[in-house]
Specification:
With 271 residues, the protein is an alpha/beta fold. Helix content is 45%, strand content 16%. The strands form 2 sheets. It has a 6-stranded parallel sheet, sandwiched between helices. Strands 6-5-7-8 form a 4-stranded parallel sheet. Helix 1 packs across helix 10, helix 4 crosses helix 6 and helix 4 crosses helix 10. It is globular, with a radius of gyration of 17 Å.
Length: 271
Amino acid sequence: MDMRPIGVFDSGLGGLTAVRSLRQILPEEDLIYFGDTARVPYGGRARETILKYARQDVRFLRSFDLKAIIIACGTVSTTSLETLQKENDLPIVGVVEPTCRRALAVTKNRKVGMIATQASVRSGAYEETLLRLDPKVEMISRPCPLFVPLVENGRIHRGDVVIETVAREYLEPMKEAGVDTLILGCTHYPLLTEIIADIMGPEVELVSAGEESAFELKRLLKIRGLRTDEDRKGGAEFYVSDRPEDFECTASVFLGEDLHRAARRIDIDKY
Ligand code: DGL
């Protein structure tokens, strides 16, 4: 049995999709969440910058005695996972492979769409992984750079003209291409699930990156004997690098609990 917490990080709110999943499938585990809200979005930045930020995020999380880390960020997972795994002596799970496995399990026509940040699409990581797992699959990918800032600004609700207009522009070509599965390759995007599902229609299955990595972590903890006492109820601590109030507001809606004054601000430049 291992009582130590699990670290989860993202550039901002997106990693909450992994937190929501972890709470459902590993409710007994303690979580430490870090959202780098002072520097979000990461997705338009150079690989070196993303790695530099990700190293700092990991160093901050490792100021706690953790048993594992989930990189609940597509951008960091697609660009920096291997380096972070090599540099750290604890299990680190990214989002790419678990998400691709899930997409292949649900697609019937083997036409898979993938939307993510520019850095993730540029990296080619989803495509490479998908084709390694099934060389016959066809993947169509598209960056959606306006999604992250809109989500961070709380524009996540049906009926919001701005997010709906942007989403239609990004997604209609995907729909026309005939994909039956759409990977939400950036962990911010599941906060837009309703809007994306309205445009894609009920026949297209949405696969969320953050959720799948939570299942992967569960498997890994079990194999390595790192699960905690299953009868307890785990807690969560939230840290951000900028004003906690905005984070708390959208996080409360998304997680369905009152996070008022639950997040603390830290200075990420110290790490
Ligand atoms: N949630 C992130 C991802 O999964 C971050 C996006 C960003 O900061 O641009 O890619």
